[in-house]
């Protein structure tokens, strides 16, 4: 499983708090030695305010009840900072914690910083302190409280830059509390904000922000009910597709998974996905991308099935994909069968069952469902246990297109022949005139 682990690669694009779930998953799956993963967690925790958590891990690693003096001192500093911020933000937080009051103020169009400052005698830096408090809570691991404060900050702030950064923080917090609906909305808002700022943002920073968003959105799109379709739409957007090709080809793994899982609705995009996988094969390749290339580009069904068998292990080592592995395997087998049917007139169900490692009766029921879902013109021959396929009729649009292309070709050939004949006639006339001139001169 470690062979297919992308945690180190993904971590370069994630906030350190978003890496914790990845390490927890690896520890649960026993992909690496426990001590190594605990040391990695400790390295992530040092810059945060989760000192008690860090102490607990350190004690387990050292098998002792003692803690280093530096950690104890750091804990005192965090507590002192917490008490100071509690006092500084108390007046504004008392208002914001009163949900009915906030709802009333918003309904009255009075939920503005100026109105709150006049009515509740807030200090000039009250909003800045609220942002600082939200960030402090996030670093302490109180993600729900941080998300709530950042939401209020964005509603009250008139600073576009501050609101933009707060939106990133809110998205991270929503992911960590697994509020997938809120996180999905934040992904959409961030995407719109990045594009709205594109004229004032250097191209390199735009590329980086799009790369970050694609990585942060993985947790959202593989947990939200409609997330896989949303991921396909995001990654296939021209600017995000460019970011993937330029900066993070490893995200092809997730695009393949999402598209296969939604293939019924996104089938036309399989060709573009295949092109991307072939194009980026020199920089990134794994069983999922190789499966697509073998099936859709090379029509090598044996190779596709070999890679599909390896896909299960690769997905099992991935936090975002593990829960979708069974559905992916079933959908991918359906794509293999459909592709096989499109180039054969008769398919032996027993052979299909053997290749896909299925019981013959289960395979027959599965094939019937696939034929119906893929709208193939086929029938099941129960006597021979075969699927008999009829040639697919050529669509009217395709026939018109082909005839138009044929007419154009014939017109070009006819015009060329006429031009050649006119040239030959002119050449013969010129030769006759040239032959007559010496005779007249004599």
Task: Give a written overview of the molecule.
The protein has 442 residues and is mostly helical. It is 74% helix and 2% strand. It contains 23 helices and three strands. It has helices at 7-11, 16-29, 34-45, 51-62, 69-96, 99-107, 113-120, 126-140, 143-156, 160-176, 180-196, 203-221, 227-235, 238-247, 252-261, 263-266, 270-279, 287-297, 301-316, 325-342, 349-355, 360-373, 396-441; strands spanning 346-348, 378-381, 386-389. A three-stranded antiparallel beta sheet has the order 1-3-2. α4 runs antiparallel to α5, α18 (287-297) packs antiparallel against α19 (301-316) and α19 runs antiparallel to α20 (325-342). The longest helix is centred in the last third of the chain and has 46 residues, at 396-441. The protein is extended. The mean pLDDT is 86.
Subunit arrangement of the protein: single chain
Q: Helix count?
A: 23
**Averaging pLDDT over every residue, what do you get?**
86
Tertiary shape: extended
Q: Largest beta sheet: what is the strand line-up?
A: 1-3-2
Rg computed from alpha carbons, rounded to a whole number of angstroms = 32 Å
Stretches where pLDDT falls below 50 for ≥5 residues?
none
Give the helices and strands as they follow along the chain: HHHHHHHHHHHHHHHHHHHHEHHEEH
- Main pleated sheet: 3 strands, antiparallel
Number of strands: 3
The percentage helix is: over 70%
- Alpha-beta content class: mainly alpha
From the N-terminal CA to the C-terminal CA, the straight-line distance is 100 Å
Beta-strand portion reads: under 5%
């Amino acid at each position: 499983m470690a062979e297919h682990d992308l945690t180190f690669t993904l971590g370069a694009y994630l906030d350190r708090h978003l890496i914790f779930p990845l390490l927890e998953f690896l520890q649960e799956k026993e992909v690496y030695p426990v001590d190594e993963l605990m040391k990695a967690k400790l390295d992530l925790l040092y810059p945060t305010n989760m000192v008690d958590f860090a102490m607990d891990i350190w004690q387990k690693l050292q098998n002792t009840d003692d803690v280093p003096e530096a950690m104890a001192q750091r804990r005192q500093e965090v507590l002192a900072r917490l008490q100071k911020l509690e006092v500084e933000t108390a007046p504004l937080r008392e208002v914001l914690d009163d949900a009915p009051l906030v709802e009333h103020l918003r309904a009255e169009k009075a939920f503005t910083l100026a109105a709150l400052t006049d009515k509740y005698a807030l200090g000039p830096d009250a909003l800045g302190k609220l942002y600082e408090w939200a960030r402090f809570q996030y670093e302490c691991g109180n993600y729900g409280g941080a998300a709530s404060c950042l939401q209020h900050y964005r509603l009250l702030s008139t600073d576009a830059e501050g609101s933009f950064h707060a939106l990133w923080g809110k998205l991270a917090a929503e992911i960590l509390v697994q509020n997938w609906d809120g996180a999905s909305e934040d992904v959409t808002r961030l995407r719109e904000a990045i594009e709205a700022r594109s004229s004032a943002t250097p191209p390199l920073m735009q590329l980086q922000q799009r790369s970050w968003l694609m990585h942060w959105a993985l947790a959202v799109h593989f947990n939200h009910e409609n997330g896989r379709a949303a991921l396909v739409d995001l990654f296939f957007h021209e600017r995000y597709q460019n970011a993937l090709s330029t900066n993070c080809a490893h995200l092809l793994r997730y695009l393949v998974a999402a598209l296969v899982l939604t293939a019924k609705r996104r089938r036309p995009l399989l060709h573009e996905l295949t092109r991307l996988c072939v194009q980026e094969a020199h920089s990134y390749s794994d069983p999922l991308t190789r499966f697509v290339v073998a099936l859709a580009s090379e029509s090598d069904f044996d190779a596709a099935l070999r890679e599909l068998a390896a896909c299960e292990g690769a997905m099992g080592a991935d936090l975002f994909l593990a829960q979708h592995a069974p559905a992916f395997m079933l959908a991918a087998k359906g794509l293999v069968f459909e592709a096989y049917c499109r180039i054969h007139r008769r398919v032996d169900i027993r052979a299909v069952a053997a290749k896909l490692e299925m019981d013959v009766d289960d395979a027959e029921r599965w094939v019937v469902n696939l034929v119906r879902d893929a709208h193939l013109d086929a029938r099941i021959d129960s006597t021979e246990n075969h699927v008999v396929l009829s040639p697919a009729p050529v669509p009217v649009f395709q026939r018109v297109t082909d005839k138009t292309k044929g007419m154009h070709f014939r017109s070009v050939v006819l015009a060329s022949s006429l031009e050649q004949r006119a040239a030959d006639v002119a050449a013969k006339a010129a030769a006759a005139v040239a032959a007559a001139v010496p005779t007249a001169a004599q």
